[in-house]
């Protein structure tokens, strides 16, 4: 009988099980996705939700908007800002995010990059955010070696590798409470309805809106002119000085547009640029001298004031010329009573005159 071939030795493989808090986070993420599919509000993992609230709060990290490939506008943050926030806010994390620290770091505060990556991975597994990378419209034009990586890219795409990295970008999917969103939506709807009903607004409201619009545009363009004048003055002496440098940045929010208050940077110009700067200074000096000889500062002030008043009057005239603006308003109760008394008085006078005429004829 032929001997039976020996069976290969069995190798026992130890199965590595994920920690309990990771399974809970993934289960919470799956539940959140199911809730979103049903059209209901997602239920976020209560263990790590305070971390997202702290990140997106008033004292949290900086976020910006970008276009995601194949989707709509999204908000995102940078991994290095996330790392800086966790390492510099130990007291805040222990006070508001103690459950998250206990689940991810055994109750300790983040101390190095590995601790930051653990918390970041928990947020990704809980569907609070996901990792993305810069996706240019034309990759060939962005592939040059002299191209510097963008600090805040304006176009992102989801990455296959969803492990946390301090050098990456992370799109925020956490929505938080919807009460504020519903309130803002109600304000938008009310604003649209009021705008559609503009033709039936009272005249004082139309004129008030016109005045507010002119004041707003005057302040805005006045600020732009002031910025340009100040920038030109510092540019001549070799500095780039901007007041509100982000005021026209389309990727900044309303509050971020006014931060920082100013930016200051010394220029590194060559000899040709120095010649251009001093030539511009000479031309500006000659122009100012010629204007000062023909016009005074009071003349310029009178011209600006009269032009401003003319613009306001022009808008009021246009509003009063709109169809329906010249319709006669309904008389008030007092006006009706005065008109009735006037008619009664005229009727009485007419009756007395008739009686007097008849009496005179009888005597004759």
What does this structure look like?
The chain is an alpha+beta fold. The chain has two domains: 20-138 and 150-177, no CATH class; 189-320, no CATH class. It contains eleven helices and seven strands. The strands form two sheets. A five-stranded mixed β-barrel has the order 1-2-5-3-4. Strand 1 (64-68) and strand 2 form a beta hairpin. Helix 3 crosses helix 6 (113-125). The protein is flat, with a radius of gyration of 37 Å. The chain starts with 19 loop residues before the first helix and ends with a helix. Residues 8-39 have low confidence and may be disordered.
Element layout with pairings:
Elements: H1 20-37, H2 49-55, E1 64-68, E2 73-78, H3 79-88, H4 90-96, H5 98-105, H6 113-125, E3 129-134, E4 155-158, E5 169-172, H7 179-196, H8 203-236, E6 239-243, E7 262-266, H9 271-294, H10 297-320, H11 333-363
Parallel strand pairs: 1-4
Antiparallel strand pairs: 1-2, 2-5, 3-4, 3-5, 6-7
Distance between the termini: 170 Å
Averaging pLDDT over every residue, what do you get? 79
Largest sheet: 5 strands, mixed, barrel
Strand content: 5-15%
Spatial strand sequence of the major β-sheet:
1-2-5-3-4
Structural class based on helices, strands and sheet pairing: alpha+beta
């Amino acid at each position: 009988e032929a001997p039976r071939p020996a069976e290969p030795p069995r190798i026992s493989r130890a199965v590595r099980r994920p920690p309990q808090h990771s399974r809970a986070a993934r289960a919470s993420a799956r539940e959140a996705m199911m809730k979103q599919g049903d059209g209901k509000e997602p239920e976020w993992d209560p263990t790590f939700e305070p971390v997202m609230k702290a990140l997106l709060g008033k004292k949290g990290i900086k976020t910006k908007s970008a276009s995601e490939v194949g989707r709509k506008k999204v908000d995102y943050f940078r991994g290095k800002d996330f790392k800086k926030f966790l390492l510099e806010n130990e007291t805040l994390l222990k006070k508001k995010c103690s459950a998250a620290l206990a689940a991810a770091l055994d109750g300790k505060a983040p101390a190095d990059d590995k601790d930051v990556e653990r918390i970041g991975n928990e947020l990704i597994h809980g569907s609070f955010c996901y990792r993305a990378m810069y996706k240019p419209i034309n990759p060939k034009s962005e592939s040059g070696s002299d191209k510097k990586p963008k600090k805040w890219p304006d176009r992102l795409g989801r990455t296959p590798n969803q492990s946390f990295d301090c050098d990456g970008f992370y799109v925020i999917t956490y929505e938080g409470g919807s009460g504020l969103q519903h309130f803002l939506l109600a304000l938008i709807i009310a604003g649209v309805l009021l705008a559609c009903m503009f033709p039936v607004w009272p005249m004082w409201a139309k004129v008030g809106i016109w005045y507010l619009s002119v004041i707003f545009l005057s302040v805005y363009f006045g600020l732009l002119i002031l910025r340009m004048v100040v920038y030109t003055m510092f540019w001549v002496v070799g500095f780039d000085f901007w007041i509100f440098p982000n005021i026209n940045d389309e990727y900044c929010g309303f509050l971020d547009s006014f931060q920082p208050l100013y930016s200051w940077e010394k220029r590194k110009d060559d000899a040709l640029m120095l010649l251009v700067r001093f030539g511009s200074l000479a031309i500006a000096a000659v122009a100012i001298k010629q204007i000062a000889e023909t016009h005074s500062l009071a003349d310029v002030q009178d011209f600006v004031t009269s032009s401003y008043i003319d613009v306001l009057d022009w808008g009021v005239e246009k509003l009063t010329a709109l169809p329906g603006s010249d319709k006669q308003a309904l008389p008030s109760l007092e006006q009706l009573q005065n008109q009735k008394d006037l008619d009664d008085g005229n009727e009485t006078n007419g009756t007395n005159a008739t009686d007097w005429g008849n009496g005179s004829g009888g005597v004759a």
